[in-house]
Amino acid sequence: CVDALSSKLIEKRSGLYHRLFIEVLSAAFLFIFTYYGYQLTVMANDRSPMLEWPRPLWYACMPVSGVIMSGYSLRSIIRLLLALFDPDKTCSSALINK
User: Fold this and answer.
1) What is this structure's pTM?
2) Do residues 33 and 66 touch, judged by C-beta distance below 8 A?
3) If we measure between CA atoms, which residue out of 60, 69, 29, 65 comes closest to residue 42?
């Protein structure tokens, strides 16, 4: 992780906006990943040549992990939004990484 900009903005309000922007981009990627991973899993209908297992079993980890990672990303977005709209809290990294 290259965090030169993040480390300079850690104690500033603009650091929260930067983290929010990164999390929104991550969430968008994860939603797309989950959707296309699900499509791949549903469309796979052959069997693996060595073990003779159905191919969807091999691909099912993509939509499942996409849903889990999307949930964590949404949690981070909600925490960042709460930190932005609550003036009593500080803008430190300890606030976001609870």
Assistant:
1) 0.74
2) yes
3) 60
